[in-house]
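ok so for the tutorial part 2 we go from a plain amino acid sequence to predicted structure tokens. step 1 is just haveing the sequence, like this:
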Amino acid sequence: MIRRSALTLMASVVLLIALGFIMLMSTGGYSQESANDEWAGMRKQAIWLLLGITGCWIMASVDYRGLQRLAWPVFWLAVLALGLCYVPGIGVEVNGAKRWIAVPGIKALQGQPSEFGRLAVIIAMAAWCAKYRDERKSFLKGFVLPMCVVALPIGLIAGEVDLGTTCLLFMVCASMLFVGGARVVYLVGMIAVGAGLFFAAINFGEGKQMGNRKARMTAFMHLGDEAFAREFPDIAELNNQQNQGILALGSGGPLGRGVGEGRQKQHYLPLCHTDFIFPVIGEELGVGATLGTIMAVVCLALSGLLIAAHAPDRFGKLLGTGLVLLIVYQALINIGVTTGCLPNKGMPLPFVSYGGSNLLSCLLAVGILLNIYRHGRPAVLASDPVLRAPKLTPAL
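step 2 — the prediction. this is what the tokens look like for a chain of 396 residues:
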């Protein structure tokens, strides 16, 4: 399958993006971005898509091994961008969370630096593990120091009250250390400590946003509990979004109501074009479309991991693995939240949800994966006589 992995990867991404634009066309009239113009969101997303395709092409063309030399300058640039979220006049606060930066006076030029900070952290982690390969079992250089380095951007993201991205990045870094050969006992201890810190932040953190996170966790633990809803209606109300999402998924049936015919998006299901676009897919296109979406993510995961496994060097293997897991973990979290399997957390569905910064960062990741494929294929052909036949792979 390695010979077709790049084609499978691109096909999965194209299908997800196409589905995203179909759903955005359906939900555009009910989003805040399209309050006065139902096509405004489509135009913005199209602009970000063009930027993403350009970035994907550049990353696929330039040798990915150059990222190993630029890993630390890119890392510190990302840390600086994350720090700008806390600067008055540049950082943009939305609903109590400071996750965005914007050019002063130009509201259109606004983005989330955490989207690109995640890529920088993965590149830095891959570069570190590749450099200290012989000390991967060491407690200091194989575990403590790399985690201390990534703790800085993770801490800045957590300070933005973005616990979802914090957990996502933590999971990806732990997985990369595991693939890189770190001792399992260290990783188990780190996961236990991370879970404890997360629990402490939820239960003892100060501020309105942290109080909201605790209430969300409490509400999730009583999802579908009618007695709890009657006794604590204010907390149970936090489950409304997930309840509406589950209702949308159930009402779609096998074939769905038809594109544009969904009812829950009509101001019943908040964020129907971003974090909760998956239930709209189920309601309008049916269970086949939801299973197809999951299958596209699975194909993306398998093809991406195959590309990473056949990378010509250790840096490429770790970098490819981290990028694939970043996209797949995010998709799993989104689907888990919208189906009521995980606590409610704002996390877009990669390539499908509305959001320019996320679309651009995911396409940059895909470009790097295609680059790894280009450099890994000659090595595979040289070692496997079956794959020496011409034109077995797309010309990338």
